[in-house]
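[RESIDUES AND BACKBONE]
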Amino acid sequence: MSKPVTVEWGLEISAVMTVSAVVLLLIGLSDVLEWWFDLGGWGFYLLAVGVLMLIIGIVWFFSILSRIKRFKALMLEKSKAAFVRSLDDLEYTAWRLPSKYEDMVLEKEREMGIR
């Protein structure tokens, strides 16, 4: 069973969301301050949507990066006993990341002679 798009492409989607939010913020701000655009008062709504998207995009982006960092730290384990102890945490972290990380866990299990 494949993973949801938000998991497989989460990093890319969050980056696009963050960039789109910045664009919406700039357009909304230019309408409010009457620089380039005249959207007839819709600039406040664009500002609000831009702020929400920016917050969500940044939090999502950094949560994925922290999961990847944690995954890499768990994968660096050289001891088989320590690796087996942290295997549940590693598999859960890989489950929340794109499919290639689960494949990396399976490869490491084969290297360590587990299962």
